[in-house]
Amino acid sequence: MLRAIGQRGAAVEALFLDFYGTLSADDHAAVESACRAVVESYALPVTSQEFAVRWGEVFFRTIESANHERFATLHECECRSLVETLRGMGVRPGDPEPHVAVLKSYWQNPPLHDDVRELLDGLRVPVCCVSNADRDDIESAMALHGLRFDAYITSECARAYKPEERIFRLAAEKLGVDPARVMHVGDSLHSDVGGARKLGIRTTWICREKRIHDVGTCAPDHTIRSLRELPALLGGDTG
């Protein structure tokens, strides 16, 4: 049985896993494609990567104001943030749907990393997938790859987005575990590391490749570049 011994001494009784960018390939290609189309459509005086950074910053602000009673789906937030980004550049935006559709396709059909099944097959602790995603998207992606978890919580289920602690709290309740005995693995310093730490959850940051833009600065308990490194942590090696 793989059971982690964290830096704070207690055995980890459950594992939370982010999905997009952690289990599946990062959305880099989809974002670049969407941003390239926007830049060309509106003849913007920036590169697609520069626009991706601008849009990303507005997007993060949008989802952080879309929690609880003001909740909006990820798709709605993508549309709203694109419109706001263009307006901020002095552009009158048209329908955002054609550009956001590129991202929707990614959410439902993301390529899976080759280290995922090996990890999941070897785990003997309960696993909850914790994702900033719309329910239909994560269910489509899970079905596409035949993935099963003991539980999954999306931002739509929780009506809150990481780094809001509610989504992590609901995941812990779903598995019936103390957050202090959970390890969360994710690819975002902002959403995954920053959010999980609020609840006292141990964090492992998976840094597979350079992200387009990560607004987070929180320090994780562990850093890995592949899920193949995780069993060493789950075997008690705190590095």
Throw out a few tags for this protein:
239 residues; alpha/beta; Rossmann fold; 2 domains; disordered N terminus
Number of strands: 8
Neighbour order of strands in the largest sheet: 5-4-3-6-7-8
> Mind telling me which CATH architecture of the largest domain this is?
3-Layer(aba) Sandwich
- First-last Cα distance: 20 Å
**CATH fold-level assignment of the largest domain:** Rossmann fold
- Outline type: globular
Tell me, rounded to a whole number, the average pLDDT: 91
Largest sheet: 6 strands, parallel
Helix/sheet category: alpha/beta
Number of helices: 10
Content of β-strand: 5-15%
Radius of gyration from the CA trace? 18 Å
Order of helices and strands: EEEHHHHHEHEHHEHEEH
Query: Any idea how many domains?
Result: 2
Which CATH top level class of the largest domain fits? Alpha Beta
Question: Which consecutive residue ranges, at least 5 long each, have pLDDT under 50?
Answer: 1-7
Q: Please, what is the CATH homologous superfamily of the largest domain?
A: HAD superfamily/HAD-like
Instruction: Bin the helical content.
Output: 40-55%
